[in-house]
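debug: dumping io for the single-chain case to check the tokenizer round-trip. Nothing else runs in this session.
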Amino acid sequence: MGTLDIEPSELKGITLGGAIIPRLIDEVPILAVAALFANGITEIRDAAELKVKESNRITTICQGLSRLGARVEELYDGLRIYGGYPLKGNTCSSHYDHRIAMALAVAGLRAEGQTHIEEAESVNISFPQFPDLLASVTGE
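debug: decoded output
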């Protein structure tokens, strides 16, 4: 148990790499989404392990976010995300990867227009309540 004090602030681009990456490897797709709304550039390095998950998560998150209008570069061991680019709804493939599907769905919430995630049923692998939770947050 603990207490958190939270204050609103602007997100700022950062560089993530080294020893912390193995502890947050599964969170990289959603961290990439958060980086879209940060000021500046975010780099995630030392994450080549992402290439051997349910999909090559480096490639698939870059492809999906790029389809939404984000400026994202694939690196040999991670990715570079440029914050501040407006997103536009589009059709994206999750490549049957549950974490990619959820990350793209969250990005789609901030996109202008409708976003369609192909193979979205893959979220059932780890979080079958995700569609209901997302609907409760958005009111849809």
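debug: round-trip ok. The helical segments are 21-24, 28-35, 57-67, 98-109, 130-138.
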